[in-house]
Q: What sequence folds into this?
């Protein structure tokens, strides 16, 4: 385990940014944090979470897939994929790190989504342990430990210091780049930090949330539960929940006519939309209740 | 996918001089949908048209793009060509490469490049064109004329003369209108009654014409060719078909102190009355506000004296429903109220009168039997001051008067002045004017006669104040030409009051969905080219409801309106413009924005039942366009936020395809 | 603090439900947390007594819900309307979006609603309990004592700039009606207008670039009641699901604002629901401000059936090229 | 992409009854204006949807001008009055978003005003050219 003073963090960022693109949560003018590319003067946000999850690094909201060009009556297909370079996502929370596993399950099992895979391969994830979870947090219920987030490197933040521990070879590599700015240390303050977090977690309003009732074939019995009608009563059918969700991975593939050709791109889609999965025969989820469910 | 043929015209050297037509037809060959592309010297010639027809057959074309002169020149030509070749005429688009390309650009490469782009835009549009078929609707061969003044009378007579039945709706008990109140008419000085009353009789005797007097239009539905109109016939308490107009009831009626509207309140009439001797229909009417029998159930004299037994105190208002193919508005005018013109002392002195009152004072059938006597003391006036433009051309004080020129005042004032001097040479006549406007046949000659032969004092300047003092009216005025103040002791002051549309016009316009200007004059479909048609199809304008007019103009406009009506009624079916708005009922949410902007009232709302995806049904209010009424402006398409409203022939997709093609 | 108590409203709702005037009640109920109050339909006295809520967090404008609920419900619906909600209510009636006969509207006075972000800025995250009394008492897991906050200090932006405390539609009013307020709601727009075009462009790029096109603004908007939005309709030519670039971000918001121009009552729901805190209401207010200045004061929803400025005209209107000369005109 | 001499692309929406005829008259009188002006015929200026204008900018236009009959002369009586309000509102909004004012214009051109049409187009093209390429409402995908 290595550490540095909290005041030294900007130089750590500068060091990493020398060789790698570095992204981290930054406070915006509206007071909400968003991932931005680090450059001199950019400050790491204290916010618990960003509005948009870091899934966007691998699965952007819109992504060009290919391009068609026509000349006369011939059609040419152009691969628009570009080679991705290594990049660092710094400050990812435990829940968001876990979401990558779920996205991987979709995009990296056969057939592998090469667009996702290339970005995922080139990423180095630096997670950060939570210090002040919100009342809305329920990660424990899903077996996520906010005190020990996964990722290539895990970071703990105390009042005065930042602690680094690598979990993977990629992580070790990254830490070696900043070896000059950090020093080896024992893990006592980190252990203390973990304990503090765990105590807070127990106090959260949703601490007792259980997921045993779900999974396997158990969900089927709730299919006609009246709660769906009640819960969906006030649903507007917008896509906010799915777009801020770190694990929602539905997308639509569309064509855009540029005038000089056609760009085929994919973009996030939401199961809350009435147009979602519309097929020739119509739509298979007709009411907002069904979509909500 | 369309099979499009592109035909590039050289127009001799008009196009080919600046545009490489060969290059254009080559370049357009590869556009999506194009299966054939060629160029020719004169596409509009018989040979060129044959070329198009042959290509349609040979290449199974479904669409045609002609790159040629403006569509305003030859769109109709090429549409006919397409139709002759068995194509829907609306599958033709024109790329304007002459007026908007070869003629405005000088260099060949630039002209050629632009011509290609314009061609591409037309091709992009044709790719989205669909065959359009104009709608047809039957025509009810009957016309309605609203207003029975000279305008309405002339229009009705002309329409009836062509063999079509006409109904006149007149809110007064008799037809005749303002002209019936006039004495002489300018510039010929023939008597109004002598030329009007025979026409009124013609109307009464024409078996094609029905007169609904003492009646009003209550409701208008339908559209051009098919109007459904409800007419409210007010109870006149006299059976119209029984009354002989003998006048016995009028003589016996004890209620003799009712102000006589026909003489503008300058004398009285009875509660049961016939407005004037030549009234048509010549039947009596009981004024319910003044009849003792109707008010208190006491009297009943008229019923007793009526030999025909025409009196019916129990008569009720009646609603008549009738279908019409065309409606003519001839609601006429009124002089504006003089209440706001205190400076002229109209309300203080009986001897300050309006020009229309002056007409009655000089009319042989008027309150003074044609003798010019002052209303106050029935003395002969020796000094008369006429004030022109009272409330006209009043731009500075719009809340008081009207901004427009009332047009007729200069001439009737000249007439009044001249007639006064003619009959009473001992009278001094002054006319105060801003300008004297006398455009019209023999008008200026007329005015000059008033000045030169009859010695009327025309003074450029406005009257500032009229003060009644003793039996005189002190007139303070300025003479702008001599730049001095004038003080005239007048016996009579005559105000040439501005005229305004009749108050009934505004609610009528709403019923007809016909548009009006801010002065409540009806708007024409086009101020120059369609002056007697309202923008609402099937609604025509006659007389002063459209703007101030004198009698000759009114009569000629009345005839013009009649000819338009005849043209419409002569058709068995109306063929519409197929480029009309169309509402996608599935998308329409019934918000009414489109209805609010439609200048033609072509959009109505219907409750329509929809089958929902979950097999339930839902009734929704949706917009429905009447293609027979819609003129295809497209205002509704932009007012519609959901894009449910689109315009055939100029659809959103088509215009955007053109934009895309141009902006490549 | 609200002047009307929750109990008063429940009592009214129960009475109307029991005497058969209405068959259901559109009201607020507590969500997962004390501050996320959600709209709900109540059908029994029991539901009302257990779940109905009225406090400083009842922000939702119910008017739009009436479209779907009146179509669904048998009998009349009781709806509680804050003054600002009544404008949307009227506007929807102007557009014939629901059957007035099926609604029993009860107007309730409103002292303004609290903005949870402002509360969190004061007392931090981890809120476990909020009690609305004289002051708003906020308890968090990180503090022992609840923090007491004056409701006036955490008012939502739209409530600070409240345009009216007057109800423009109701069948019955609880409490006293207020007046139309001469608010400073256009100040922010004026501030932007005073900037240079470059500054404005930068401002809006910063704001709109955050848009994730979740459509929450549109879906909550009481003026956006199209059967199918042009942005969902492939035939419209502007359909898209996500903003591919800054053009599409601008396009969506320009077109949306234009489509609701003259119909927007300035209820502020768009900005409230935006997960990215984009001040969308400023676009709508810009249109309102412009149209007030160009064509005379007009408040959408102030009366049923009024003709909005964009579906109206006079022959004397100013020319599009003159809109920028406004400043000079006054001078 | 090779560097070309910058020439603004201008889309002109012209109403069928007045302005399109005015443009024809400009042609009849051989009055020059830049070839970069491309005309789209619409029945009335009130047919022009703000979506068309944004679409033109998206696809690469540098300026959009809408021409209609003079107020009071609309073939459909009131179409251009609606245009006037809609475009006043839209242009003001574009300005509010920081888009250059000179890129959009409404001009009333009658069928008799061929000279005005040409002069308007020359002037507009010049003003748009002075602004340079449309950057603020561009869609880079369309500029590849």
A:
């Amino acid at each position: 385990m290595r550490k540095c003073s909290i005041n030294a963090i900007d130089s750590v960022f500068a060091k990493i940014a020398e060789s790698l693109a570095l992204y981290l949560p930054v406070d915006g003018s509206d007071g909400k944090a968003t991932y931005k590319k680090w450059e001199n003067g950019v400050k790491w946000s204290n916010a618990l979470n960003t509005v948009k999850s870091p899934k966007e690094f691998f699965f952007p909201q819109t992504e060009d897939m290919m391009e068609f060009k026509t000349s006369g009556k011939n059609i040419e297909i152009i691969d628009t994929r570009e080679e991705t370079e290594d990049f660092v996502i710094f400050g990812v929370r435990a829940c968001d790190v876990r979401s990558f596993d779920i996205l991987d399950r979709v995009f990296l099992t056969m057939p592998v989504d090469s667009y996702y895979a290339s970005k995922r391969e080139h990423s180095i994830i630096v997670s950060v342990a939570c210090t002040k979870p919100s009342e809305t947090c329920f990660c424990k219920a899903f077996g996520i430990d906010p005190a020990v987030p996964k990722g290539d490197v895990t970071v703990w933040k105390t009042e005065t210091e930042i602690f680094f521990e690598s979990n993977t070879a990629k992580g070790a590599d990254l830490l070696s780049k900043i070896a000059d700015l950090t020093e080896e240390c024992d893990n006592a303050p980190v252990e203390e930090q973990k304990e503090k977090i765990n105590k807070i977690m127990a106090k959260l309003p949703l601490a007792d949330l259980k997921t045993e009732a779900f999974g396997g074939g158990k969900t089927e019995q709730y299919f006609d539960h009246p709660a769906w009608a009640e819960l969906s009563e006030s649903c507007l059918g917008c896509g906010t929940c799915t777009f801020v969700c770190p694990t929602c991975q539905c997308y639509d593939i569309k064509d855009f006519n540029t005038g000089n050709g056609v760009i085929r791109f994919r973009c996030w889609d939401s199961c809350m939309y009435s147009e979602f999965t519309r097929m020739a025969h119509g739509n298979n989820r007709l009411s907002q209740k069904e979509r909500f469910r | 996918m369309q099979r499009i043929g592109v035909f590039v015209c050289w127009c001799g050297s008009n196009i080919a001089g600046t545009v490489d037509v060969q290059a254009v037809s080559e370049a357009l060959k590869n556009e999506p949908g194009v299966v054939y592309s060629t160029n020719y010297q004169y596409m509009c010639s018989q040979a060129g048209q044959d070329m198009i027809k042959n290509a349609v057959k040979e290449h199974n074309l479904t669409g045609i793009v002609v790159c040629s002169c403006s569509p305003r020149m030859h769109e109709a030509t090429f549409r006919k060509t397409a139709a002759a070749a068995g194509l829907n005429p609306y599958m033709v688009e024109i790329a304007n490469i002459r007026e908007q390309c070869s003629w405005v650009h000088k260099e060949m490469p630039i002209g050629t490049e632009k011509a290609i782009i314009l061609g591409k835009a037309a091709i992009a549009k044709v790719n989205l064109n669909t065959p359009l078929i104009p709608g047809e609707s039957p025509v009810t061969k009957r016309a309605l004329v609203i207003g029975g003044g000279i305008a309405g009378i002339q229009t009705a007579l002309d329409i009836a003369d062509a063999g079509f039945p006409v109904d006149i709706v007149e809110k007064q008990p008799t037809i005749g209108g303002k002209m019936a109140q006039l004495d002489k008419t300018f510039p010929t000085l023939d008597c109004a009654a002598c030329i009007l009353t025979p026409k009124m009789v013609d109307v009464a005797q024409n078996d094609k014409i029905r007169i609904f007097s003492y009646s009003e239009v209550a409701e208008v539905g339908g559209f051009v060719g098919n109007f459904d109109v409800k007419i409210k016939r007010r109870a006149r308490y006299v059976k119209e078909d029984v009354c002989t107009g003998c006048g016995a009831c009028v003589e016996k009626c004890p209620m003799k102190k009712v102000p006589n509207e026909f003489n503008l309140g300058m004398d009285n009439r009875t509660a049961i009355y016939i407005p004037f001797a030549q009234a048509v229909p010549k039947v009596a009417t009981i004024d319910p506000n003044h009849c003792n029998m109707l008010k208190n159930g006491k009297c009943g004299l008229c019923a007793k004296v009526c030999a025909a037994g025409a009196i019916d105190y129990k008569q009720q208002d009646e609603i008549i429903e009738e279908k019409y193919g065309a409606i003519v508005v001839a609601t006429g005018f009124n002089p504006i109220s003089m209440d706001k013109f205190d400076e002229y002392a109209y309300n203080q002195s009986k001897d300050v009168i309006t020009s229309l009152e002056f007409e009655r004072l000089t009319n042989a059938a008027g309150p003074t039997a044609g003798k010019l006597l002052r209303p106050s003391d029935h003395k002969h006036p020796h000094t008369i001051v006429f004030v022109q433009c009272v409330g006209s051309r009043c731009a500075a004080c719009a809340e008081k008067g009207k901004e427009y020129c009332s047009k007729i005042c200069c001439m009737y004032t000249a007439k009044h002045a001249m007639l006064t001097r003619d009959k009473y040479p001992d009278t001094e006549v002054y006319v105060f004017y801003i300008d004297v406007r006398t455009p019209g046949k023999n008008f200026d000659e007329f005015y000059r006669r008033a000045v030169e032969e009859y010695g009327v004092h025309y003074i450029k300047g406005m009257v500032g104040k009229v003060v009644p003092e003793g039996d005189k009216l002190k007139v303070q005025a300025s003479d702008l030409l001599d730049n001095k103040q004038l003080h005239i002791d007048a016996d009579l002051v005559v105000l040439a009051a501005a005229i305004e549309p009749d108050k009934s016009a505004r609610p009528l316009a709403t019923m007809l969905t016909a548009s009006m200007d801010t002065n409540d004059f009806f708007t024409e479909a086009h101020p120059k080219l369609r002056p007697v048609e309202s923008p609402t199809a099937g609604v025509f304008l006659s007389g002063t409801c459209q703007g101030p007019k004198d009698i000759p103009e009114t009569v000629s406009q009345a005839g013009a309106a009649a000819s338009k009506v005849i043209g419409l009624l002569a058709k068995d079916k109306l063929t519409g413009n197929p480029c009309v708005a169309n509402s996608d009922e599935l998308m329409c949410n019934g918000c009414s924005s489109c209805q609010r902007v439609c200048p033609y009232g072509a959009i109505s709302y219907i409750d329509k039942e929809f089958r929902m995806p979950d097999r339930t049904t839902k009734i929704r209010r949706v917009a429905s366009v009447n293609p027979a009424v819609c003129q295809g402006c497209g205002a509704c398409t932009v007012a519609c936020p959901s894009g449910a409203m689109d315009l055939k022939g100029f659809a959103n997709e088509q215009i955007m395809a053109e934009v895309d093609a141009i902006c490549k | 603090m609200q002047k009307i108590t929750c109990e008063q409203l429940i009592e009214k709702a129960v009475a109307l439900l029991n005497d058969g005037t209405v068959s259901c009640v559109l009201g607020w109920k507590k969500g997962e947390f004390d501050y996320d109050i959600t709209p709900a339909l109540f059908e029994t006295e029991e539901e009302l007594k257990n779940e109905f809520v009225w406090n400083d967090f009842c922000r939702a404008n119910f008017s739009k819900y009436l479209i779907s609920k009146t179509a669904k419900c048998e009998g009349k619906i009781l709806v509680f309307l804050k003054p600002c909600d009544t404008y949307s209510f009227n506007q929807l009636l102007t557009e014939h979006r629901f059957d007035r006969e099926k609604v029993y509207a009860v107007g309730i006075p409103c002292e303004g609603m609290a903005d949870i972000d402002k509360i969190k800025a004061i007392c931090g995250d981890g809120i476990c309990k909020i009690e609305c009394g004289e002051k708003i008492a906020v308890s968090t897991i990180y503090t022992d004592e609840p923090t007491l906050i004056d409701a006036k200090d955490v008012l939502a932006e739209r409530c600070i700039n409240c345009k009216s405390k007057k109800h423009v539609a109701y069948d019955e009013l609880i409490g006293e009606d207020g007046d139309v307020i001469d608010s400073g709601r256009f100040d922010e727009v004026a501030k932007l207008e005073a900037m240079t075009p470059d500054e404005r462009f930068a401002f809006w790029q910063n704001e709109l670039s955050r848009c994730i096109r979740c459509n929450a603004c549109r879906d909550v908007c009481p003026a956006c009641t199209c059967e199918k939005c042009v942005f969902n309709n492939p035939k419209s030519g502007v359909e898209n699901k996500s903003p591919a670039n800054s053009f599409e971000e601008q396009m969506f918001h320009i077109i949306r604002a234009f489509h609701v121009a003259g119909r927007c009552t300035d209820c502020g729901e768009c900005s409230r629901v935006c997960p990215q805190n984009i001040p969308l209401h400023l676009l709508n207010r810009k249109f309102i401000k412009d149209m007030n200045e160009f064509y005379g004061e007009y408040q959408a929803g102030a009366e049923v059936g009024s003709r909005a400025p964009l579906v109206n005209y006079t022959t004397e209107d100013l020319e599009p090229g003159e809109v920028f000369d406004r400043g000079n005109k006054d001078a | 992409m090779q560097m070309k001499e910058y020439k603004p692309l201008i889309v002109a929406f012209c109403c069928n009854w007045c302005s399109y005829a005015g443009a024809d008259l400009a042609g009849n009188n051989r009055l020059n204006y830049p070839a970069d002006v491309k005309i789209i015929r619409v029945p009335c200026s009130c047919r022009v949807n703000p979506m068309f204008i944004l679409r033109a900018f998206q696809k690469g236009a540098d300026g959009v001008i809408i021409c209609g009959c003079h107020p009071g002369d609309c073939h459909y009586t009131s179409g251009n009055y609606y245009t006037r309000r809609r475009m006043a509102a839209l242009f003001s909004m574009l300005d509010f978003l920081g888009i250059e004012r000179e890129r959009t214009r409404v001009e009333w051109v009658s069928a008799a005003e061929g000279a005005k049409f040409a002069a308007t187009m020359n002037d507009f093209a010049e003003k748009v050219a002075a602004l340079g390429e449309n950057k603020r409402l561009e869609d880079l995908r369309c500029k590849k």
Remarks:
- Strands of chain C lie at 24-30, 37-42, 77-81, 103-107, 127-132, 136-140, 147-149, 172-173.
- Chain C has two domains: 6-115+161-173, 187-330.
- The two ends of chain C are 44 Å apart (CA to CA).
- Residues 187-330 of chain C form one domain.
